[in-house]
Every structure is written in C-alpha cells, then in structure tokens.
Amino acid sequence: MSQGAHEPGGRDLVLLGGGHAQVEVLRRFARRPEPGVRLTLIAREPRSLYSGLLPAVIRGDCAVTQAAIDLAPLAARAGARLIVAEAVAIDLVVGRVVLADGAAVGFDMLSIDIGGEPRMPADAAGEGAIPVKPIGRFLDRLTRLDGTLPAGARLAVVGDGAGGTELALALAHRFARRACILLVGSAPAPLPEAPARARRVAAAALAAAAVEVRAGVRAGAMHDGRLALSDGTDEPVAAVIWATGVVGPALLAAAGLACDADGCVQVDAGLRSVSHPRVFAAGDCAAISGVARPKAGVWAVRAGPVLAMNLRRALRGQAPHPWRPQRRALAILGLGDGRAVAWRGVWSLAGRGAAGWKAWLDRRWVATYR
Questions:
Q1: Residue 28 falls within a domain, yes or no?
Q2: Biggest CA pair distance of the chain
Q3: Residue 224 belongs to domain spanning
Q4: Which of 22, 16, 70, 68 is closest to 44 using CA atoms?
Q5: 135: left (phi over 0), alpha (psi -120 to 50) or beta
Q6: Does residue 229 share a domain with residue 306?
Q7: pTM for the whole thing?
C-alpha cells in the first residue's frame, strides 16, 4: 500500500521503519520540508505502537488505537510517500530496499529505524515461542492466545529486565484466574539494572500477582509443552514469550553494513553508519560505537531530533553533529495494580503518583504525532 506521488528530479531519502526516532524525522520534515528531497517511508504496519504503552494495552487499560501513531496522516503532512510492506533486503551497491513482494524502492540516502528482535537460542524459535517484537505481531499472537489458552495453563516470560518484568505483571493482570505466569531470567533476581528499593517493590508486586520467578537460569527450547532450563530442569508451559535483550534483524548484517556482535548497525556519534556514509540508523537496531546504552524506547525517542537534524545536514553536504546520549535515563515500570515504580540512578519512587506520571508522559508523546 502506498500514498503520495513523487515528482521527477531531486534526491530520494528513504525512511525504513516507523520507529520512535523516525516518526520525529517525519514531524520535523513536515514542519520544515527540505527542498529537492523526495521522502518515502517504508513501514511493516500502518501504525507505530509506542512501546511504553504496550503493558497498558496488554492489561486492557489502553486501546491499541490510543497507544499507536497512524503513519498515513503523519507521512502526508511531511509530503512523504508511505509504503506499508515488509523489507526483506537492502542493496547498498545499487541503493535500493527490496520488499517482500519483490518490488524495490531506490534511495540516495537511507535511514533505518526498524527496531530489534528478542535474543533467542537458535532452537527456541519453534513450538510455543512468541517474541515480544515486532509488537504488532506479538499482539496478534496474544489475541489468538486469549481464545485458545486452557484454564490453569502456565505462560512463561523469558527476560528479567524492566521489559520482561513489566510484561509478566501485565500478563498476570490480563489472565488473572485463567493462567499462571512464570518469569524466567538469568540474574539472581528480577530487575538487576534497578536500584535496591525498586527491585524490592517489583519483587513484592510479582509476589502479589502470583507470578512465579525462576531466577539464575537461562531458558532454552520448548518441546512437548515443557521449557528447558540451563540447570537441567524444565517447566510445563503453554507458550513462551521472549522479552530478552535485543538483537538486530538479520537483513542488516546481510546487507553488508558494519554491525556489532548483536547484529545492530554500528553508527558514529552523528548516527551515520561507520561503513556506509549514505546510511543512518537509530533506535534498537543501531549501536553508537564506543557508547554503551541499554536498548530502550527512551533512547530512540531522544535520538529522533538528532537523526532529523543530521539527515538534513547530510542532504546539504554538511557534516553531522555528534550526539552523546546521557548516561542515565528515567525508567518507570507499571506494576499492574494501578501503581508504578520509577527510578533514575539510585533514586526511586513508587506508588500511584508514579503511575500517573508514566501515563501522562506516554500519552503526551503519542499525542505529539497526531
């Protein structure tokens, strides 16, 4: 599906992916178009769901339409052609993105913000595996699970960071009295990145929600309804939801882009590929060389203005401005019971006030793009 028509002449800037950084590029180009530049957005889905609101969607506190940005009007305001399709390859020699239907979209400059995928063992992608990303596909699988999950079943969530912990609490709310939730992680306790008080609050919330925790173990494949664990035991489960650390989609390294050990595009401080200067990348699919930051939506959001500025500068033949993300960012985790816990560094805050703060921040961000 596409919208918009391109006039002859000019240069083609293709935005691959409608992630958190890329929607800001569209917003800024809508406010101030770049002369002589034809803009195309290629997105897997017609809506971009804000990851911060995913737990609220899972709990039923927020409709998908309230948590998502409709890309069609946003692209139209920027004068961009919108193509809703899956990208399967990037040809950096010719300068084109190849789509699942065989069509190709040429580019003079390419900006990539397609998110990442949960890290999973090679043999874990089969029976019962449900990756939390891409989010649209995850929600489709979750909806199907609603109608097929037998009473008393167990669902495993693999990943004990903020994303996995919040997901487990949201699922416990969604499937209350219908299913048991098992949280599996390799750390000694959930939320290893948080300060001690936030960890205690989260542990109490998990216990109150009757979420079982298997700490200090790694999950493997699921066979015959049992999830194998690294300590030699296994757990009976109906499905396994993977919310582990992010790796880059395979098409990035396959294209010949310089990638880190996780398959994410290596970019410089200006978000430009270190191997291909006409390619930029941001969000979970990118890694700034020499700057280690967690994969989280907050970094993608903050990369948006930098990406927009440096794409514009590159189109004008100017050098990108360097960006160094701050070392720490605010994290707010919904506890599934009307409360949340927030932290930054060693500081933390828990309660209904933190939940209201999170809801306000999340909805304000989405409203910016409507």
A1: yes
A2: 63
A3: 119-245
A4: 16
A5: alpha
A6: no
A7: 0.93
First to last CA, the chain: 21
Q: Are residues 76 and 148 in the same domain?
A: no
Domain assignment present for residue 136? The answer is yes
Joined together, the tokens standing for residue 263 give: 């398959």
Tell whether 125 and 266 lie within a shared domain.
Answer: no
Q: Strand 212-214 and strand 234-236: pairing?
A: unpaired
Radius of gyration, alpha carbons of the chain? 21
Whether residues 133 and 64 fall in one domain: no
The answer to whether 216 and 198 are in contact (CB under 8 A) is no
- How far CA 307 is from CA of 52, 69, 81, 161, 186, in Å, comes to 21, 19, 19, 27, 34
For 9-46, the pLDDT digits (tens) are 589 999 999 999 999 999 999 999 999 999 999 999 99
Cis bond upstream, residue 236 (ω within 30):
no
Residue appearing with tokens 């999170």: 358
Bridge partners for 240 per DSSP: 129, 156
Tokens of 247: 């790796």
Strand order in the sheet with 219-223: 219-223, 226-229, 234-236
- For residue 126, count CB atoms less than 10 angstroms from its CB and return exposed for 0-12, middle for 13-18, buried for 19 or more: exposed
Angle between the N-to-C axes of helices 20-31 and 297-315, in degrees from 0 to 180, rounded to the nearest 10: 40
pLDDT (tens digit, 9 = 90+) per residue, 38-78?
999 999 999 999 999 999 999 999 999 999 999 999 999 99
CA torsion sign, 272 to 276 to 281 to 285?
Answer: negative
